[in-house]
Amino acid sequence: MTVAAKLQQTIGALTGAQASVEMMALQSKDPVAKEKYLEAALELNRTLYSLNQRLADIEKEEPQYR
After folding, report:
1. Which domain of life is it from (predicted)?
2. What dihedral do alpha carbons 39, 29, 14, 53 form, nearest 10°?
3. N or C: which end of the chain has fewer CB within 10 A?
């Protein structure tokens, strides 16, 4: 498995995790828990942005990994 393929797999898994955390935030009745879930979702979003940027760099440098 190439680095690009592993990165795509990781991005997919983290996207699912982010969706789950956001769903927990929506369902939570506890305001403190809701805030923590939203903070976690925001951090996952930042991480996903960074990983997507890295994937774009890899695909730009090595077009065969598209």
Report:
1. Bacteria
2. -40
3. N
CA-to-CA separations, 25 to 2, 10, 32, in angstroms, rounded: 35, 22, 10
How far is Cα 38 from Cα 22, in angstroms, rounded to an integer? Answer: 7
Q: pLDDT digit of tens for each residue in the chain (66 aa)?
A: 788 999 999 999 999 999 999 999 999 999 999 999 999 999 999 999 999 999 999 988 887 766
What amino acid occupies position 12?
G
Place of tokens 């991480």: 47
Where are the domains positioned within the chain? Answer: 3-65
- Asked whether the whole model's pTM tops 0.85, one would answer yes
